[in-house]
Amino acid sequence: MGSVVTIDDISISKLNKIKVKNGDVFHGIKNSDLGFKNFGELYFSYIDFNTIKAWKMHKEMTMNLIMPVGNCLFVFMDQSGNFRKEKIGVNNYVRITVPPNIWFGFKGLSKSLNLLINLSDIIHSKREVVNKKIIEIDYQW
């Protein structure tokens, strides 16, 4: 049986933004980076300003979350009920690597566009994800 996953198992990787005359380049992830396990799928999700999308937990998926546009507050909770907050986006351009069995939700912080990218190690499957309503986890957004 595997070890218990906690919020301390979430890793943060600083990402490079390269200034280029005709449009900047934002790094995301390489297959040699910490957090990259496999390629399952890449998807994009918009989050409106002050909107909260919560709560979800993947039983098998490792997520690599990047916000190249806008800003978001992510809240993570492990099986012991410990919380961890991370603000990411243009003001803090990083990648969050989230292992399986961590609950999470997020809130859009920018009044303009907030765009989330998730590069996951498996293809999304309804059988491996668990959802709860926002009121089912006691957290003050």
Roughly how much helix do the residues carry, as a percent range? under 10%
**CATH architecture label:** Sandwich
- Domain tally: 1
Give the overall pLDDT as a whole number. Answer: 94
What is the gyration radius calculated from CA atoms? 15 Å
How far from one another are the termini? 34 Å
Content-based structural category: mainly beta
Beta-strand content bin: 35-45%
- Unreliable spans are none
- Fourth CATH level, the homologous superfamily: Jelly Rolls
Q: Tell the overall outline.
A: globular
Largest sheet: 5 strands, antiparallel
CATH topology: Jelly Rolls
Give the strand order of the largest sheet, numbering strands 1, 2, ... along the chain: 1-9-6-11-4
Count every beta strand, where a strand is a DSSP E run of 2 or more residues. Answer: 12
Q: List the secondary-structure elements in sequence, H or E.
A: EEEEEEEEEEEE
What top-tier CATH class fits best?
Answer: Mainly Beta
| Discrete helix count | 0
Describe it.
The strands form 3 sheets. This protein has a 5-stranded antiparallel sheet, with no helix packed on it. A 5-stranded antiparallel sheet has the order 8-7-10-5-12, with no helix packed on it. The protein has a two-stranded antiparallel ribbon with strand order 2-3. The chain has strands at 11-14, 17-18, 25-26, 41-46, 52-58, 63-69, 71-77, 83-89, 94-98, 103-108, 115-120, 129-131. It contains no helices and 12 strands. It is an all-beta fold. Strand 2 (17-18) and strand 3 (25-26) form a beta hairpin. It has a single domain (7-133), classed as Jelly Rolls.
